[in-house]
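Q: I have 191 residues here and want to know how they pack in 3D. Can you give me a structure?
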Amino acid sequence: SEAGTYEVTITGAGSYSGSRSLGNMTIYAKPNIDTSMACVISSVANSGLVLDAHGATPTVGANVTAWTSNNGTNQQWIISADGNGYYTIKSAAGKDYVLDAAANPPKVGANISIWSNNNQNNQKWIIVESNGTFVFRNAASNDLVLDATGNVPKVGANITAWTNKNQDNQKWKLATVSDLSFAKVSATGLV
């Protein structure tokens, strides 16, 4: 199907009759992102701030904040598609760690940290692109988006899952890291 909002209805077949509307379902266009390299995710509301997992070598449970870019791997992320329309956002500092919204499903204000990948929907994201910016909707509760606290976030602003208000503190830009240590390498044969 094409991107758009569709009404979903179930209709009886065979010896069953009747129909019932299940509501609307939105299908988003595939975002134009390079999943082959690490990227830096910066706030549209304050472009000097990037997603940062606390500590130069973050550990499981490290809090995620908006912080001044320092080119550390704790500020670099590897976005991976799962083939079902969802993405995981892995920390380049610890590739076993992914962005995690507290609880499954998360509630409004759920804290974002990095956690061991357990393949649950609170660790998966629907990435919606619009005019070169991205909104990250949580797969377990897709009315919640990645949010930097404050309309114009300041250094150290906490990152939470918050109701989508279509504000710049909930929009992000991606820039690939030109460090070849994150490039995918594959052998093609002898030269």
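Q: Anything worth noting?
A: The two ends are 43 Å apart (CA to CA). The longest strand covers residues 19-27.
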